[in-house]
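Why do we care about 3D structure at all? Because function follows from shape, and shape follows, mostly, from sequence. That is the central idea of this module. The next example makes it concrete: a single protein chain, its amino acid sequence, and then its structure expressed as tokens.
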Amino acid sequence: MKTQNIKTQLLQLCTTSLDTRLQSVLAVIEDIKQSLQSETKSSAGDKHETGRAMLQLEREKAGHQLAEIEKTKQILSKINTESTYKNIGLGSVVYTTTSNYFISISAGELKVEDDTFYAISANTPIGQLLLGKSVGDVINFRNLEFKITKVL
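And the structure:
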């Protein structure tokens, strides 16, 4: 399988994961909006105000999630599937003796054909250890030692 094909598929899976999260957050925001609009002044004024305050907090939380998704989209947009690097960086596909990684965003376990990859952010502890390394380097992470066997 060609390098670009693996990277392209992994990038697409990350994008799909991010889009799913985006749709979920947008649905929550819409629900909150509907709830705020349908919330009518009840005879128990304090209860009404508390309900509105809780909805406002939820809306704020959803807004933060939306901002995080936008930042994450920016990271994905910087990945060039055409490039291969000797040293590990953003967009690298890393094969090791224990697991395979795609340095991109935290999107969990992804499968491309028969291989399993972990999409991880460069900011994660394992991502930090991998950055700048190359084939043959040995990594120690949480009492586990593994060797980098291939970098795309």
